[in-house]
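Recall from the previous chapter that SMILES is a line notation for molecules. Here it describes ribulose-5-phosphate.
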Amino acid sequence: GEDINKVEKAGADWLHIDIMDGHFVPNLTIGPQVVADIRKRSRLFFDVHLMIEKPETLIPSFVEAGADLITVHLEACVHLHRVISLIKGYGIKAGVALNPATPVYLLNDIASELDLVLVMSVNPGFGGQTFISGAVEKIKELKQLLDNKGLNPFIQVDGGINETTGRRVVEAGANVLVAGSYIFGSSDIEKAVQSLKF
Ligand SMILES: O=C(CO)[C@H](O)[C@H](O)COP(=O)(O)O
Ligand SMILES: [Fe+2]
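With both inputs in hand, we obtain:
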Protein backbone atom coordinates (compact mmCIF):
# COMPACT_ATOMS: atom_id res chain seq x y z
CA GLY A 1 0.00 0.00 0.00
CA GLU A 2 2.78 2.42 0.91
CA ASP A 3 4.64 1.70 -2.32
CA ILE A 4 1.51 2.26 -4.39
CA ASN A 5 0.95 5.60 -2.68
CA LYS A 6 4.56 6.53 -3.40
CA VAL A 7 4.34 5.87 -7.15
CA GLU A 8 0.94 7.55 -7.32
CA LYS A 9 2.41 10.69 -5.68
CA ALA A 10 5.46 10.46 -7.96
CA GLY A 11 3.21 10.87 -10.99
CA ALA A 12 2.85 7.32 -12.33
CA ASP A 13 -0.02 7.24 -14.83
CA TRP A 14 -0.96 3.58 -14.41
CA LEU A 15 -0.33 0.77 -11.94
CA HIS A 16 0.88 -2.37 -13.72
CA ILE A 17 -0.04 -5.50 -11.75
CA ASP A 18 1.75 -8.76 -12.58
CA ILE A 19 -0.33 -11.90 -12.13
CA MET A 20 1.65 -15.17 -12.38
CA ASP A 21 0.24 -18.66 -11.93
CA GLY A 22 3.30 -20.94 -11.59
CA HIS A 23 2.25 -22.71 -14.83
CA PHE A 24 2.39 -20.27 -17.74
CA VAL A 25 5.42 -18.75 -16.01
CA PRO A 26 7.66 -20.36 -13.39
CA ASN A 27 6.65 -17.97 -10.62
CA LEU A 28 3.61 -17.22 -8.52
CA THR A 29 2.34 -13.79 -7.45
CA ILE A 30 -1.09 -12.58 -6.40
CA GLY A 31 -4.72 -13.22 -7.29
CA PRO A 32 -7.96 -11.21 -7.57
CA GLN A 33 -8.38 -10.77 -3.81
CA VAL A 34 -5.15 -8.79 -3.48
CA VAL A 35 -6.08 -6.71 -6.52
CA ALA A 36 -9.44 -5.94 -4.87
CA ASP A 37 -7.63 -4.99 -1.67
CA ILE A 38 -5.22 -2.60 -3.38
CA ARG A 39 -8.13 -1.14 -5.39
CA LYS A 40 -9.39 0.27 -2.07
CA ARG A 41 -6.10 2.13 -1.65
CA SER A 42 -5.60 3.61 -5.10
CA ARG A 43 -7.45 5.48 -7.82
CA LEU A 44 -4.76 4.78 -10.40
CA PHE A 45 -5.62 3.08 -13.69
CA PHE A 46 -5.17 -0.66 -12.98
CA ASP A 47 -3.30 -2.38 -15.81
CA VAL A 48 -3.49 -6.10 -15.06
CA HIS A 49 -0.93 -8.28 -16.86
CA LEU A 50 -2.16 -11.87 -16.73
CA MET A 51 0.67 -14.39 -17.10
CA ILE A 52 -1.64 -17.32 -16.53
CA GLU A 53 -2.96 -20.31 -18.43
CA LYS A 54 -6.67 -20.32 -19.39
CA PRO A 55 -7.08 -16.61 -18.50
CA GLU A 56 -10.79 -16.76 -19.40
CA THR A 57 -11.47 -18.61 -16.13
CA LEU A 58 -10.24 -15.71 -13.98
CA ILE A 59 -11.10 -12.66 -16.09
CA PRO A 60 -14.51 -12.13 -14.37
CA SER A 61 -12.79 -12.11 -10.96
CA PHE A 62 -10.16 -9.59 -12.05
CA VAL A 63 -12.86 -7.34 -13.53
CA GLU A 64 -14.78 -7.57 -10.26
CA ALA A 65 -11.53 -6.76 -8.40
CA GLY A 66 -11.25 -3.45 -10.25
CA ALA A 67 -9.09 -3.96 -13.36
CA ASP A 68 -9.31 -1.11 -15.90
CA LEU A 69 -7.36 -3.02 -18.53
CA ILE A 70 -6.58 -6.73 -18.77
CA THR A 71 -3.75 -8.02 -20.92
CA VAL A 72 -3.56 -11.71 -21.78
CA HIS A 73 -0.70 -13.56 -23.43
CA LEU A 74 -1.26 -14.64 -27.01
CA GLU A 75 0.67 -17.83 -26.15
CA ALA A 76 -1.82 -18.67 -23.37
CA CYS A 77 -5.01 -18.33 -25.45
CA VAL A 78 -6.37 -21.04 -27.73
CA HIS A 79 -9.34 -18.81 -28.63
CA LEU A 80 -7.79 -15.35 -28.48
CA HIS A 81 -10.67 -13.54 -30.19
CA ARG A 82 -13.12 -15.02 -27.69
CA VAL A 83 -10.95 -13.98 -24.73
CA ILE A 84 -10.59 -10.41 -26.03
CA SER A 85 -14.36 -10.21 -26.59
CA LEU A 86 -14.93 -11.47 -23.06
CA ILE A 87 -12.73 -8.71 -21.58
CA LYS A 88 -14.27 -5.96 -23.72
CA GLY A 89 -17.77 -7.21 -22.91
CA TYR A 90 -17.18 -5.95 -19.37
CA GLY A 91 -16.58 -2.44 -20.71
CA ILE A 92 -12.87 -2.37 -19.85
CA LYS A 93 -9.81 -2.25 -22.12
CA ALA A 94 -8.18 -5.37 -23.55
CA GLY A 95 -4.55 -6.03 -24.46
CA VAL A 96 -2.45 -8.84 -25.88
CA ALA A 97 1.12 -9.58 -24.81
CA LEU A 98 3.81 -11.18 -26.95
CA ASN A 99 6.71 -13.15 -25.46
CA PRO A 100 10.15 -12.31 -26.87
CA ALA A 101 10.03 -15.32 -29.24
CA THR A 102 6.50 -14.66 -30.52
CA PRO A 103 6.36 -12.88 -33.89
CA VAL A 104 4.37 -9.69 -34.44
CA TYR A 105 2.61 -11.02 -37.55
CA LEU A 106 0.48 -13.31 -35.35
CA LEU A 107 -1.49 -10.19 -34.40
CA ASN A 108 -2.59 -9.60 -37.97
CA ASP A 109 -6.15 -10.88 -37.54
CA ILE A 110 -6.79 -9.57 -34.03
CA ALA A 111 -5.09 -6.13 -34.10
CA SER A 112 -8.30 -4.23 -34.88
CA GLU A 113 -9.89 -5.52 -31.64
CA LEU A 114 -7.09 -4.39 -29.32
CA ASP A 115 -6.69 -1.39 -27.02
CA LEU A 116 -3.07 -2.31 -26.27
CA VAL A 117 -0.26 -4.53 -27.48
CA LEU A 118 2.40 -5.47 -24.94
CA VAL A 119 5.83 -6.28 -26.30
CA MET A 120 7.68 -8.25 -23.62
CA SER A 121 11.32 -7.22 -23.45
CA VAL A 122 12.18 -10.04 -21.02
CA ASN A 123 10.87 -13.58 -20.76
CA PRO A 124 7.92 -13.19 -18.39
CA GLY A 125 8.12 -14.54 -14.86
CA PHE A 126 10.50 -12.31 -12.93
CA GLY A 127 11.31 -8.68 -12.30
CA GLY A 128 14.87 -7.43 -12.46
CA GLN A 129 15.90 -9.12 -15.72
CA THR A 130 18.02 -7.59 -18.48
CA PHE A 131 16.27 -5.88 -21.39
CA ILE A 132 16.32 -7.98 -24.59
CA SER A 133 17.33 -5.55 -27.36
CA GLY A 134 15.41 -7.45 -30.03
CA ALA A 135 12.33 -5.73 -28.62
CA VAL A 136 13.34 -2.48 -30.33
CA GLU A 137 13.08 -3.86 -33.88
CA LYS A 138 9.94 -5.71 -32.87
CA ILE A 139 8.25 -2.47 -31.77
CA LYS A 140 9.12 -0.88 -35.13
CA GLU A 141 7.65 -3.89 -36.91
CA LEU A 142 4.52 -3.72 -34.76
CA LYS A 143 4.14 0.02 -35.41
CA GLN A 144 4.35 -0.67 -39.14
CA LEU A 145 1.72 -3.43 -38.96
CA LEU A 146 -0.62 -1.12 -37.02
CA ASP A 147 0.04 1.91 -39.24
CA ASN A 148 -0.69 -0.16 -42.36
CA LYS A 149 -4.09 -0.95 -40.90
CA GLY A 150 -4.75 2.59 -39.65
CA LEU A 151 -4.83 1.35 -36.04
CA ASN A 152 -3.55 3.13 -32.96
CA PRO A 153 -3.67 0.93 -29.84
CA PHE A 154 -1.24 1.61 -26.99
CA ILE A 155 2.17 0.03 -27.56
CA GLN A 156 3.46 -1.07 -24.19
CA VAL A 157 6.89 -2.45 -23.29
CA ASP A 158 7.59 -4.46 -20.15
CA GLY A 159 10.88 -5.79 -18.78
CA GLY A 160 14.23 -4.18 -18.02
CA ILE A 161 12.98 -0.65 -18.64
CA ASN A 162 15.08 2.22 -17.33
CA GLU A 163 15.89 5.68 -18.70
CA THR A 164 18.19 4.28 -21.42
CA THR A 165 16.08 1.36 -22.63
CA GLY A 166 12.93 3.44 -22.18
CA ARG A 167 14.24 6.10 -24.57
CA ARG A 168 15.12 3.44 -27.16
CA VAL A 169 11.66 1.87 -27.14
CA VAL A 170 9.86 5.23 -27.18
CA GLU A 171 11.91 6.24 -30.23
CA ALA A 172 10.86 2.94 -31.83
CA GLY A 173 7.15 3.71 -31.25
CA ALA A 174 6.23 2.60 -27.72
CA ASN A 175 3.97 4.89 -25.68
CA VAL A 176 3.44 2.96 -22.42
CA LEU A 177 6.47 1.97 -20.35
CA VAL A 178 6.33 -0.53 -17.49
CA ALA A 179 9.11 -0.33 -14.94
CA GLY A 180 9.50 -2.31 -11.73
CA SER A 181 13.06 -2.54 -10.43
CA TYR A 182 14.08 0.80 -11.93
CA ILE A 183 11.35 2.61 -9.96
CA PHE A 184 11.22 0.65 -6.72
CA GLY A 185 15.00 0.21 -6.55
CA SER A 186 15.54 3.94 -6.84
CA SER A 187 16.32 6.18 -3.87
CA ASP A 188 14.28 8.95 -5.53
CA ILE A 189 11.06 7.39 -6.84
CA GLU A 190 9.65 10.67 -8.14
CA LYS A 191 12.77 11.37 -10.18
CA ALA A 192 12.73 7.81 -11.55
CA VAL A 193 9.05 8.04 -12.60
CA GLN A 194 9.53 11.44 -14.19
CA SER A 195 12.64 10.27 -16.05
CA LEU A 196 10.44 7.89 -18.05
CA LYS A 197 8.11 10.63 -19.31
CA PHE A 198 9.85 11.30 -22.61
O1 LIG B 1 5.78 -8.79 -16.35
C1 LIG B 1 6.84 -8.68 -15.78
C2 LIG B 1 7.77 -9.85 -15.67
O2 LIG B 1 7.16 -10.96 -16.18
C3 LIG B 1 7.20 -7.37 -15.09
O3 LIG B 1 6.17 -6.45 -15.34
C4 LIG B 1 8.53 -6.80 -15.50
O4 LIG B 1 9.57 -7.72 -15.41
C5 LIG B 1 8.84 -5.54 -14.73
O5 LIG B 1 9.91 -5.66 -13.91
P1 LIG B 1 11.34 -4.99 -14.25
O6 LIG B 1 11.08 -3.56 -14.58
O7 LIG B 1 12.08 -5.19 -12.98
O8 LIG B 1 11.91 -5.76 -15.40
FE1 LIG C 1 4.28 -7.24 -16.41
